[in-house]
Amino acid sequence: MTIELLDSITDATDATVGKIVVSGSHGGLYPAAAASLAGTRAVLFNDAGIGLEQAGVAGVLALADVGMAAAGVDCNTCRIGSAKDTLERGVISTVNSVATSLGITTSMSVERAVLLMAKAMSPHARLKPHVESRQAVAIGAYGLTVELLDSASLVNARDTGKIVITGSHGGLIAGDATRAIKAPVRIAVFNDAGLGVDNIGTSRLPALEARTIASVTVSCDTARIGDAASALETGIISALNPSAQKMGAAIDMPLSTWLSILTR
């Protein structure tokens, strides 16, 4: 049995086809579609705290529609963004119907679940691509512009100096500070993915502080992970770095309120 460890499902290559993948990504709709389109045979994702409207495992459940075994791993048992830690310490929190048919259950170790996934059949179809949106939105009386990006992977040099709200989790991918964000933005917003073990869901914040980038996370229970518009509409700040605090951000403050303060 061949297992592929991917700290981010976006790192999938042609070598992933037919493999059982342990991923550090959250189990939302976009990562699930990415796994499906990469030809994965079975996959495990971090449940990202499950969160608002079960967004953290929505993709795990959707994969059953194409016959792929998938499971979500409890964010409080392993670090999001680390496939190795997921394999070594992870405990299953969510299973889809295909995984259930293989004998995979909640509270099972990932190591055990992976062995059972060896019996998985290849999916009979693939999910349609889940397009991550990007849009600029003006807020407040003075028209402050923010960029809404469903994934931090969409950040590029054009975002330099901008306020960027992402739907991505706030954990460092594989603990790599260089992957905290791809451009020197003014403000970066992430989902806290349930905070998770070692508060991994906020680990981008100190890395961004070192680059003097103000950054906050919003609680996964108040905004859908993978959905930047949801963060802006209903997100409540759950963690922040000193640079964000100096700009008026506070824990338990609605994200929209803080951004409105910045327009004054």
Layout: helices, strands, pairs:
Layout: E1 3-6, E2 20-26, H1 29-37, E3 42-46, H2 58-62, E4 69-73, H3 83-89, E5 92-95, H4 97-101, H5 110-117, E6 134-139, E7 144-149, E8 163-169, E9 187-191, H6 204-209, E10 214-218, H7 228-234, E11 237-240, H8 242-246, H9 255-262
Parallel strand pairs: 1-2, 2-3, 3-4, 7-8, 8-9, 9-10
Antiparallel strand pairs: 4-5, 6-7, 10-11
Report on the architecture of this protein.
The mean pLDDT is 95. Strands 6-7-8-9-10-11 form a six-stranded mixed β-sheet. Strand 9, helix 6 and strand 10 form a beta-alpha-beta unit. Helices cover 23% and strands 22% of the residues. The protein is α/β, with parallel strands linked by helices and 264 residues long. The chain folds into two domains: 115 residues, no CATH class; 129 residues, no CATH class. The relative contact order is 0.14.
